[in-house]
Design goal:
The complex is a heterodimer of chains A (476) and B (989). With 476 residues, chain A is mainly α. In chain A, 69% of the residues lie in helices and 0% in strands. The chains are: A mainly alpha (476), B alpha/beta (989).
Chain lengths: 476, 989
């Protein structure tokens, strides 16, 4: 093993894998059948999800008053969760699209899961704007559809309408991108499938993939184009989400630095969530050789970078509030730091500014358990960031007489738990039925950092000719 | 497409009038489908039958108005009752009425809800069982015969009665017995004023206070703008003395000396906190200073009296000292001071006195002794609830149960009526004939706006029945008016014409009955005994709340949900403590404390358990508790508001709304006393949530979070009178310049509606809140929802405690939708549910709203209200009060002030029919109409001559958050206090 390593680059995939080994390793969890861990995890996630479903059903039947909102604080948990999940959904596209365009080849081990995570997170996020409405059954009114209600149209000046477009686009493109990336692997699954049902299903969804050079050529062109299309969305979605606040008149919301600040925060939180999930996955599914310490380190470095931007944004906000000469702006920020919700602010600072600093140390970056704990802290911190921005700003705005506090009700807590339940349920189902690592793409980086990779590959080629085709996803 | 096609063929079918085959089939298909669908639906048959013969007075969709008199309290304000389709839906003040001058208080506004209370008695009751009038009359006649035969006495116990007809009938009725007497008391007694005048002026009368003529006003425990005698009248009169018009600006000087912070004290120019035990020494000191007997006040903490005495001395005949205590000694001293200042005949009118309070606590005490002694054979109880509102009520209840004949006239089986063998419910005042002479010379008329909804009979009719010649109230009144009212005037020669005009106007101005006046007698003043002061214990002060009064309207959900003007608490009473006192006791707001004291006449000690409320302006040694709570039957509100698993009831731990504090009252020196010393306060360790509509009470941001001079938010502009006299724009910050780079978004070619609120006039009395609630179908949400800050009132009166020049000022700022020209709410709504009208109104389209609440978040004034649940009327019958011109909102929908757009439309249609422009002042919003202080002005800002335009041009005008460039159509006017020293801090805006 040690012999094969280049002195210049460390290999992305450890264990001196051959192409067929990759297929076997990645498909192993799918072949093995669900284990006790998976069933247990699914039971927990489904229970959480069910709790959420019960809470939302009760809320829909009784009224939005079952949330802790009031005349002063019209958004709190709902939009906090929404922005939190949208933020989580940022890493996937960033990894798939931007890192792809930047030729960051290590992305291949994590991009599939990260994209899946994106889609599930956007699903979770998308629920909140719908259920937070007073009359969610009329949610479709925010869509500009032709209607016979006279000249009724939507308000294109409303950031909520922009939101609807931004998230809708983002979800669609992410889904297509993810699916296109899946096609070669679906073909592999099809070829490995024993049962007729699986064969038919995977056969259908792999669009008759034949693994020919022409197919690959087309495929890679489409993938590149989609990556190019998805790249601006990484920036646009959270930019537009931030406009929900930036275009308002509420001190603490009304801020021009929100778009970059929100995007950086989203990448920050997204990578933290990818780390959380990948560290669990690599341990449970034995992917240590695919998702290596190198991957964890790389992602940690991105976290340091984006965490730095976030910390800078916090300081800029403070500076601007004092420099602006606007008494409301100043008050809003002093209130964040010292007011009744100061604890939330300091949790946010602790988790988002202090935590990433540990990752400067290589030793910590390579300590999987520590990185896992730190990633959890960042997840918590980023949730609180949204809570701080959205809720604290609303609790103390202009007129002191209308200041009020906010506390979530059990229904809101259950809804938050339920959204996590939905997210993990979807992720578990994904992990159970689809390859969590992009087999085809990983095979392409097998040789990276290996001295004799070409020789080795040739050797293998000689021994298992039929498997060579398997490298590229099987025959037609 | 098809629709267009059909339409086109229809338009151009001169040549061909037949449908082609496709259209025919389409239409036929729709028709059959329609028929089939209709057939499937099991629709309930709604009886909406048009009038076969239309009643002369009812035009569907058009309101008719009836002049009448408010019966919410004794003040006798004139009202106009708005009827739509035959039922009263709104009460407004009668602008022509000489007492109330167009205003009406919160209690008055809420009367219309009580009309539709399904818990009012449906008919007479005998021994708790429903009966009918003939049976009841037979039994009572028989019992009365027994009483007449025996030698027991007959007593008629009532609250103050101002009806000439009823009083005349009552006199005849009582004189038909050997010993029949009318005993009058009020739960909030003013007996001491009458008693003091009986001693000093030889006439047992309540002067008619003329605040409009007073230039120096001293209020001693008298909340005359909130609850004292005739607050609507006094507010109007007080306001007319503080208009700030002319040069030098007209503004009376008002000093308030009180133990708890009242609405009146909150807007005084100078305020001092004293304990009740200091009152008599203070009055003595003031009298001595005025008499010149002493050069300066002896007691050091009364040193402010030196200045006050000087002010009073320089305003002889134009000053007014009023005392709200029911202590005769204090009232005698007050009379002496007013007499010395020559105020009688000027600011105190004894020639045409007030009849608004005629309580005689001495007589009440005598009656209680008689009942205990078994001398009373028959007791009639009308308009009062002695078991509830007197001390030792339970004992009184037991005594009543033992009396041979007790007849109650209560509208429901209240605390007293349950001890009465007979209950003869009266119709609601809005459905009965009555007359009222609240102030000598003004006889107001009450006419029914609706036939009684229950099987009821008015007191007049009952009395006439029991006198043996039954007549209707209408007849009885006409008889009496012929005799005693018609002769007192000369304007109308014909009785019928006089009657008709009085019914039309709602009142008749006649000559007051001649009053015997005697010379001032100073002897009683020498005999005033100073009460002893209790050491190291609290003094308890019992007071009526602005919206609840003596508790007779406790069944009115609107009034229960009115935030108290000072504490902003709804749905409860509480023990008010100063911050220092609370600290000493170690309690916080909401902690339940036990108030205990011994009463020499009671066997055991008395205890009250109430939640604490910490209040600035309160004397440290005083604990104040509101009366009027803990009424029987208020457990009906346990389930008001939405029901869900975290929802909590609107009642307290006892199952009722609040706690009855009447057991703490005492009879002292013949008077019902609303204060007592020697009260111990202990913590109980329990806590009770108080539903306060504000969580933050100061205009200054918390010191920890403030940045130097930025601590004060510039929302309430304030100036001293001295500064204002020099510069009319005093107190105003730098005027905001509009610096928009965009072209005008909206052009207002026609009208541009605007509103101005004068903070100098507003007292925070909450009349506008209830008026708006009635006009705009605003539901009651219940205590838990108020606590969650979800009250739906479209007007929120922001109450700020402001420290101005060392004085604690209470600034009241009514906040309604500001109808911004650049409305932040309008841009953010995704579905265009809130849009701008071409007349400058910010309109909410309920049907279009999906409830994102973004508009409310983005409203810097936070005036938008959201329907978190479906808020239903607790009593389905009260749906009758709904205004058909205003949509009832369902859950999930945003709502807010519309500037009474339905009233604007009504007047616009009216003007269009007449081919004229809408006259200035023709449109009055509900809040404006009701305001006793006339603080609110509404009109067309495009009309340079309109009143509102003039107010906008006034130097006192300011807009809230003008620097946000929202350009609101609602503006405010600087609050001015009559103070000399200039304010060092100039709030900026």
């Amino acid at each position: 093993m040690v012999d094969g390593i280049s002195i210049l680059r460390s290999p992305l995939i450890l264990g001196n894998k051959s192409a067929s080994q990759v297929t076997d390793d990645v498909c192993a969890p799918l072949d093995r059948g669900p284990g006790m861990t998976w069933w247990f995890a699914l039971a927990v996630s489904l229970s959480m999800f069910t709790l959420g479903v019960i809470a939302v059903t009760y809320q829909l039947a009784t009224g939005i008053g079952t949330w802790g909102l009031n005349s002063t604080v019209g958004w709190a948990f709902d939009i906090t969760n929404f922005v939190f999940w949208i933020g989580i959904g940022h890493a996937g596209t960033l990894i798939s699209a931007i890192l792809f365009l930047f030729r960051q080849r290590w992305r291949t081990s994590v991009n599939r899961s990260a994209e899946a995570m994106t889609i599930f997170a956007v699903i979770c996020a998308g629920l909140f704007p719908i259920i937070h409405m007073g009359r969610p059954w009329l949610a479709f009114w925010v869509i500009p559809y032709p209607n016979f209600r006279g000249p009724l149209w939507i308000n294109f000046r409303s950031p909520l309408v922009w939101d609807m477009f931004a998230i809708g686009t983002y979800f669609t493109i992410s889904l297509v991108f993810w699916y296109v990336g899946l096609i070669p692997d679906l073909a592999t699954l099809r070829d490995r499938a024993v049962s007729k049902v699986k064969k038919t299903l995977f056969g259908f969804f792999s669009f008759g993939w034949d693994g020919s050079t022409r197919t690959w050529q087309r495929y890679e062109t489409v993938y590149l184009l989609l990556a190019g299309l998805a790249t601006p969305l990484v920036v646009s979605v959270h930019t537009i989400v931030s406009w929900d606040f930036a275009t308002s008149v509420i001190p603490g919301w009304h801020s021009t630095i929100f778009p970059p600040y929100f995007v950086a925060g989203a990448v920050f939180s997204g990578f933290a969530m990818v780390l959380t999930l990948m560290i669990i996955a690599r341990a449970v599914l034995h992917f240590e050789e695919y998702i290596t310490l190198h991957h964890i380190e790389s992602m940690s470095k991105i976290i340091i970078a984006t965490g730095g931007i976030v910390a800078m944004a916090y300081m800029t906000e403070l500076f601007v509030s004092f420099y602006s000469g606007n008494e409301y702006e100043r008050f809003a920020f002093i209130n964040r730091m010292l007011g009744p919700y100061a604890w939330a602010y300091w949790i946010m600072v602790g988790c988002n500014v202090v935590t990433p600093q540990f990752l400067w140390f290589r030793k910590i970056r390579r300590n999987v358990a520590l990185v896992f704990i730190l990633s959890i802290f960042i997840n918590v911190g980023m949730w609180f960031e949204r809570f701080v921005i959205i809720t604290i700003s609303l609790t103390r705005d202009y007129l002191p007489a209308s200041w009020d506090n906010y506390a979530p009700t059990l229904i809101e807590l259950a809804t938050l738990v339920g959204s996590f339940g939905l997210f993990f349920t979807l992720f578990l189902i994904f992990a159970r039925f689809l390859p969590m690592i992009a087999i085809g793409e990983v095979k392409a980086v097998l040789s990276y950092g290996r001295k004799e990779s070409h020789g080795k590959a040739r050797e293998e080629e000689g021994r298992k000719v039929g498997e060579y085709e398997g490298l590229h996803g099987g025959t037609s | 497409m098809n629709g267009h096609h059909t339409h086109d063929t229809m338009e151009h079918d001169n040549e061909t009038s037949r449908l082609d085959r496709r259209d025919f089939l389409k239409l036929a298909g729709f028709t059959f489908a329609g028929v089939a669908l209709t057939g499937c639906e099991q629709a309930r048959v709604e009886k909406a039958i048009p009038y076969l013969i239309k009643p002369e007075e009812i035009t569907p969709g058009k309101a008719s108005w009836y002049a009448s008199t408010c019966a919410g309290c004794n003040a006798g304000c004139g009202i106009l009752v708005k009827n739509r389709d035959g039922r009263p839906i709104k009460i407004e003040g009668n602008p022509d009425h000489p007492i109330s001058r167009g205003g009406l208080c919160a209690i008055g506004q809420a009367q219309v809800l009580g009309l539709y209370d399904s818990q009012r008695l449906q008919g007479p009751q005998i021994n708790g069982a429903t009966s009918d009038w003939p049976t009841l009359d037979r039994t009572i006649h028989a019992r009365l015969r027994e009483v007449r035969a025996g030698n027991k006495s007959v007593r008629f116990l009532s609250g103050t009665m101002t009806s000439p007809t009823t009083l005349a009938l009552l006199k005849r009725f009582l004189s038909s017995f050997k010993d029949g007497k009318h005993v009058v008391y009020d739960p909030i007694s003013r007996s001491a004023i009458l008693e003091a005048h009986a001693r000093t002026h030889g006439i047992r009368a309540l002067p008619h206070y003329r605040f409009d003529r007073a230039e120096v006003i001293v209020g001693l425990e008298a909340d005359f703008l909130g609850t004292w005698i005739s607050p609507v009248e006094f507010t109007a009169a007080y306001g007319s003395g503080r208009t700030l018009e002319g040069n030098p600006p007209k503004c009376s000087y008002h000093v308030q000396i009180e133990s708890r912070l009242s609405l009146t004290g909150g807007r005084s120019d100078k305020r001092y906190a004293i304990s009740p035990s200091e009152r008599v020494p203070l009055l003595e000191a003031l009298l001595a200073l005025l008499e010149g007997k002493s050069q300066s006040a002896k007691l050091p903490h009364f040193s402010f009296l030196n200045d006050l005495a000087g002010r009073l001395n320089s305003a002889r005949g134009t000053s007014l000292v009023v005392c709200g205590s029911n202590d005769v000694a204090s009232q005698i001293l007050t009379n002496a001071i007013n007499e010395l200042l020559g105020n009688y005949g000027k600011t105190l009118d004894m020639q045409s006195p007030s009849y608004q309070h005629q309580s005689n606590d001495n007589a009440l005490q005598t009656l209680l002794t008689e009942i205990r002694g078994g001398k009373v054979g028959a007791l009639f109880v009308h308009g009062v609830n002695p078991v509830y509102d007197l001390p030792k009520g339970r004992e009184i209840g037991e005594l009543l149960s033992r009396l041979p004949l007790v007849v109650s006239f209560a509208e429901r089986v209240d605390e007293t009526a349950q001890h009465a063998g007979f209950v003869c419910p009266e119709p609601h005042p809005l459905s009965s004939w009555r007359d009222t002479e609240a102030v000598a010379g003004v006889v107001s008329m009450t006419q029914p706006a609706l036939a009684p909804l229950e099987n009821t009979r008015s007191l007049m009719e009952s009395l006439s029945e029991w006198l043996g010649n039954r007549a209707s109230a209408h007849e009885l009144m006409q008889q009496e008016w012929r005799k005693s009212v018609f002769p007192r005037q000369s304007a109308e020669k014909d009785l019928a014409a006089f009657w008709n005009r009085s019914v039309h106007d709602g009142f008749a101005a006649v000559a007051p009955r001649p009053h015997r006046t005697e010379k001032y007698d100073s002897r009683p003043v020498q005999n005033v005994a100073s009460p002893e002061t209790g050491a190291d214990s609290f003094e308890l002060v019992l007071y009526p709340k602005v919206s609840m009064g003596d508790g007779r309207h406790a069944h009115n959900a609107w009034l229960q949900e009115v935030p108290d003007p000072i504490t902003k608490i709804t749905w409860d009473n509480y023990a008010i403590l100063s911050e220092a006192a609370a600290k000493k006791l170690g309690v916080l707001s909401g902690d339940i404390v036990r108030l205990s004291f011994t009463d020499p006449t009671a066997a055991s000690g008395i205890e009250l358990e109430l939640p604490t409320w910490i209040q600035p302006g309160q004397k440290d040694s005083v604990v104040a508790v509101a009366l009027g709570y803990g009424r029987k039957g208020t457990d009906r509100f346990a389930n008001i508001g939405p029901r869900w698993f975290e929802g909590k009831p609107s009642v307290g731990p006892g199952g009722l709304v609040g706690v009855n504090a009447a057991p703490a009252l005492q009879f002292l020196n013949g008077q019902l006393l609303y204060e007592r010393g020697g009260v111990r306060i202990e913590r109980t360790g329990r806590h009770q949530t108080l539903a306060c509509t504000q969580t933050y009470h100061s205009i200054d941001t918390p010191p920890l979070l403030a940045q130097g001079s930025e601590s004060r938010r510039p929302y309430v502009q304030y100036a001293t009178l001295a500064a204002y006299a020099e510069d009319r724009a005093a107190g105003g910050g730098p005027k905001h310049e509009s610096r928009s780079m965009w072209p005008e978004q909206h052009e207002y070619k026609g009208a541009h509606w605007g509103m101005m609120v004068d903070l100098n006039a507003c007292t925070g009395c909450a009349a506008c809140v209830v008026s708006c609630q009635a006009e705009n179908n605003i539901p009651v949400v219940g205590k838990d929802e108020v606590h969650r800050n979800r009250e739906l009132h479209w007007i929120r009166i922001d109450r700020y405690f402001v420290e101005n020049d060392g004085e604690l000022d209470v600034a009241h700022q009514p906040m309604m939708c500001q109808h911004c020209a650049n409305a932040p709410c309008e841009t953010v709504c995704p579905v265009l549910a809130t849009v701008h009208s071409e007349e400058g109104l910010n309109q909410q389209v309920y049907n279009r709203c999906v409830g994102t609440r973004y508009c409310a978040n983005n409203c810097p004034y936070k005036i938008r209200r959201f329907n978190w649940f479906d808020y239903l009327h607790e009593d389905a019958k009260q749906n009758m009060v709904l205004n058909p011109d205003v949509t009832v909102r369902s859950r999930g929908v945003m709502e807010k002030c519309s500037l009474c757009v339905q009233r604007i439309q009504e007047q616009k249609i009216e003007a269009k029919k007449n081919g004229k422009k809408v006259a200035d002042g023709a449109i009055k919003t509900a809040c404006q109409q009701s305001c006793p202080a006339q603080a609110i002005v509404f009109g067309d800002m495009n009309d340079a001559d309109s009143f509102v335009s003039k107010r906008i041009a006034d130097a006192r005008r300011f807009n809230l958050l003008a620097d946000l460039e929202t350009r609101p159509s609602v503006g405010y006017m600087t609050m001015v206090r009559n103070r000399t020293n200039k304010s060092d801090e100039t709030p900026h805006g």
